TrEMBL record:
It is an enzyme of class 3 (hydrolase). The keyword Coiled coil does not apply. The keyword Hydrolase applies. It comes from the Bacteria. This is protein-tyrosine-phosphatase. The lineage of its organism: Bacteria, Pseudomonadati, Pseudomonadota, Gammaproteobacteria, Oceanospirillales. Pfam families: LMWPc. Its EC number is 3.1.3.48. PANTHER family: LOW MOLECULAR WEIGHT PHOSPHOTYROSINE PROTEIN PHOSPHATASE, LOW MOLECULAR WEIGHT PROTEIN TYROSINE PHOSPHATASE. Keywords: Hydrolase, Protein phosphatase. Belongs to the low molecular weight phosphotyrosine protein phosphatase family. GO terms for molecular function: protein tyrosine phosphatase activity.
Amino acid sequence: MRVLFVCLGNICRSPTAEGVFRRLLDEHGLASRVAVDSCGIGPWHVGKSPDPRACEAAARRGVDLSGLRARQLADEDFVVFDYVLAMDHDNLATIRERLPHDCQAHVGLFLAFAGQQNREVPDPYFGGEDGFDEVFDLIEAASRGLLVDIQARLGTSR
């Protein structure tokens, strides 16, 4: 099973989701069965570390983002990943524009897994530090829901 989190530049929201979800998989003994990655729609930050504010917010909650590096969404991602999860409607629209007709991946908004069908994970990039904490809270909630969905698909509900 493979999960890809997608945001605009891959330095705030999607790397946070990658880090949070990796930790959750570790805690539930599923790290060896579920691969996780993140990327951005655009090329602006390719190769760069996550935003320091995202790293600080994650570190305060025991999640290490320091080893992550930004990359851009690639055509092969639609073949490789079982879940392609967008942080907002604009990201989702771009993903759907590029979606091959035979794509088998679940493509949708990440917060749908938190029971919030049309809600977006807001981009904290131009805001203050508290925006990164809000993003972290939303990502944790959606990650728990995604874990339940994956456990059901893998037949490992706990």
